[in-house]
Design brief:
Elements: E1 6-8, H1 11-15, H2 22-25, E2 34-40, H3 48-59, E3 63-69, H4 73-79, E4 85-90, E5 104-105, H5 107-112, E6 117-122, E7 130-135, H6 137-149, E8 161-164, H7 168-179, E9 186-189, H8 193-205, E10 212-214, H9 218-223, E11 229-232, H10 242-255, E12 262-265, H11 275-282, E13 286-289, H12 290-306, H13 315-331
Parallel strand pairs: 1-3, 2-3, 2-4, 5-7, 8-9, 8-11, 9-10, 11-12, 12-13
Antiparallel strand pairs: 4-6, 6-7
Helix pairs in contact: 3-12, 3-13, 6-7, 6-12, 12-13
Amino acid sequence: MTTTSTVTITPPLLQQQTPALELSLDPRIHNLTKHGFLFGKKLAASMSPLLHDVVYQGLGLNWGQLRLDSDDMDLFLNLVKDPKFYGASVTMPNKVAIIPHLDYLTPECRDVGACNTLFLRDDPSTPGRRLLCGANTDVIGVRESFVQNVSNADVYENRPAMVVGGGGAARSAVYALHKYLKATKIYLVNRDPSEVDAVMKECRERGYGDKLVYVESVEQAEQLEGPGAIVACIPDFAPVTESEKTVRRIIEVMLGKEHKGAMLEMCYNPSPFTALGAIAEKEGWQVILGTEAMIWQGIEQDKYWTGLEASKLPVAQVKEAIAARLAELSKA
């Protein structure tokens, strides 16, 4: 049996910290064989604890992930010392702040510059010491969304790709397209040129920005070779400003080109069925729902935490549970 609960850290509680603070966070923590955390702010809508609890139930593990609504790094680093702690999902605003405190980074974590997964490994040089290791499974979520759902990789491999947006998800998408999905170029489309400049600068500094092309206008889009993979990382809002309308028109131009590929629509809240997804389907594109990226990044996390391969994890049950939760939310 697993437990999902919320731990909200408020200033008064912080003033009362003790080395054994984890004992006072939630009495149900004692009923778990192992526990982890979802560490970040504004966690109420996150489906991460649900996803992982379904995995643990399917494996017969008495594990659970607790919401730790905080950005207090000292508090978190104290909590991870508990011998029953197995790892954590790390979300905003802690994805970058946690990196200096880690002993090891996976290549994805290092190159993207953000950690969304903390896992533990034994220190070979110091018996009894556990190393804090960081991974970025958001990258794997993007990769597996295409690999698991597109039957013919020729649709997107060795062709240009396109990323819409300029935030953290866009950076993970660029890295996945560059490293794993064999994109020849990566078009960046975004309403804010300064965000695009920041993405391009960071990616180039980290060694994977040489393929990036900023698409600024409809006229430029009309002259470019069509993409085979698109990752849309923007909210499902109707365009209002002129810059937003330009972005929408550029996307429509790309979708309307002769080659039809696959689009991963990362937005899934409040619904994975978005306006961009509808446009893409109408133009003959395969649309991959954003819940796929969320699920596969979570499965990758549980690979780190349980030591099991994805084939041994209850992926089908996870998909059913996430679909059911979305159906509930759509009725609310």
